[in-house]
Amino acid sequence: MSHETPWAVLMCKFKDDQRGFVAIKRQDVEAMFTAPDIENVVTFWRDVSYGEVDLSGSKTFGWLTLDQKQQDFNDALATLGNDKARSAMFSWALKAASDAGIKLDSYYGVTVYMSTPTDLWGGLQGSTGQVVCDVDSSLPQILQEYGHGYGLQHSRSVIDPTDYTNPFCIMSSMSFGRNNVDSTWHDPRFIDHDPTFAGRNGSSGPGLCSPYMSQKGWLPDSRTQHVGSNGSRPETTILKLSALGEFNAAFPQAAIIEFDSPQSLTYFIEYRRGGWDKGINYNPIVVHQLRADKYSYFAGYIRTVTTGMTGSEGTPVQAAGRWYVDAQFDLSVELLSLVDDGAAVLIRIAPAAAGRDLSVRTIANSTLGLSGAFSIKTQVLSPSDSSVRDKLIFLLS
Description:
Helix content is 23%, strand content 27%. It is an alpha/beta fold. The strands form 6 sheets. The chain has a 6-stranded mixed β-sheet.
């Protein structure tokens, strides 16, 4: 049963803005926040919650003119700091709405959309979602702020446990699709394709990671398979996974494994393909950790198709036999085959030894797509790498 969470979108301008708002097409703003049938705020949260979150009652209001100039907000930032200045500006917008006779009590959340480049943030105040964005905000950025409005945190990665470092989650939207070769978690040999896609509202993607879907109650047991574990290693299990973004999935969409050694956390294994993930042309099996701090951490992935190579009739070459092996926990994941023309995958979850039984040469060949003889020094390591072991652990994870 869906939960109605309509948002009021207040289209606002500072009192000294005489030009910015004129250049903005009202129908474009309405399409971004209220249209029922395009890739936008409404359909994203409907899709990643499997219909549990209903924003169809959202409505735009304005233009509303604030009593303040843009410099007043800039001065507040300088003197009060981000939190107090943002709270003040949000109050300015609420006053403008009240002065215009707009009733907001029936709305789950309030979005303040500014006509000039101003600010970008989101949060949950009590039970009310709050978002501020502006004319320069992209759809992925706005989707992330709405995520905060639903109580979600930023997402992170194991290799770089700071905010915005999960390339497969909308809660790291500031990082997704940048193809930043300078970032340690975004190595160009592994993510060699900008996974965003172009929609009516500009570049977009990805979906929401499965740990956060589960955390919000949007990933029911009927869509998951729990894998047995003794707390430090999983039971060997072979299972099929449908793509995480599939509404009418034939198979479970996330494998879940509980660990309590060397620390307590939950592993989520998911398959990403199509929908809001359609820009990822190598259709990865993605591994996440949900830790005690309630953050989701990207841990690694397996390509299910080999990009840049095609088989008969131009179909992607399947990357069967590839592994994810955890460098810390006793876990391995192997891609066995694609199912139903790639609509699902067959995988094996097992203790890490299952993957380590393979030779380093075999694993590196599979991971890097190499064939024949190769040199770890010249083909696996870059000149700046100081540790063969550390780099191989990174390759395996």
